[in-house]
Amino acid sequence: MFNATSDFAAPSSGLSGYGWTAELDELFAPLAEAGLTPGRLVRVDRGQADVAVLDPESGELRTVRADTRPVGSAETKDNPCTGDWAAVDLAATPMPAVSALLPRSTAIIRKGAGMRSDGQVLAANVDTVLIAVSLASDPDLGRVERFLALAWESGAQPMVALTKADLVDDADFIREDVERAAPGVTVLVVSAETGEGLDVLRACTPGTTVLIGQSGAGKSTLTNALTGADRMIVQQTRDSDGKGRHTTTTRELFALPGGGVLIDTPGLREVGLYGGEGLAQAFSDIEGLAEDCRFHDCSHRSEPGCAVLAALADGSLHERRMESYLKLQRENEWIASRSDARLAGERTKLWKARTKAVRGRVRP
Question: How many H-runs (helices) and E-runs (strands) does the chain carry?
Fold first, then answer.
């Protein structure tokens, strides 16, 4: 029997308000024939998740608590995550169970904490990555660039929201600085306190939007403003440095009144990149300059005919931005080498296990 835990307010009937499409319907057809129900993961805890599904009897959208262990994986980035589309067995006992995950269209993946080289998925199937940057203190442009590289790598469209605009008088000048560090990205000045910029922000974020940023960036306040309800607890930032404590402790998906959904995430202290093309997109201006270098493998350090060095010399490319680019490039190279070593180690371990098993079956 269907066991709903609570009503789930929807901006429109069915799962379409959460991003369900005709393509997903076609992809899900074999799973539907097996008696499974489509749903979207709203919140994921250890071994369980809240999933938005349609009640097969009433047709109403509700959430069920479901077991996610059937689709758990040793590869962290493949584990169930907020935003995943899932096939749910509502008849499973002792509780509904997630039987399968549909392929992700996009995914925000960061490097695991510390020296680990595996990836951690933050949100899945998102259209827009909204990076919250507080104006309560001078923005760290290097960190903004790091967030942008992470966002571009996901396959979604990045956007920057400069929050707490009511606290400063020079928001537009700061916006211009951030825009120079974010080529091809929309940068908006907003204030949840006064409502400045929120209508434009809503218009620019259809579909699924994930909100990321540091603690104290105003993500929870912005989530409350966009959802039109006090969904998240808001804590004060420290006066000394403008930083805040973690208000959000888990990733959670909310329906937006005008349609679409928003995924709020905890503040990120570490923003390790997981490799890929995100860096090239975040620094498209430098990549464009590099195409005019004399040598295709130019390191942009001392080679003659280097267009990047020429731009640094004439001031059209800022030294700070170049240093940020080189730093993130080194990180990408490191994570690639670590990932290769980890995968090689896993292959060796698997081969030894298989060899041992074969030897055990061979009689002397």
Answer: 9, 14
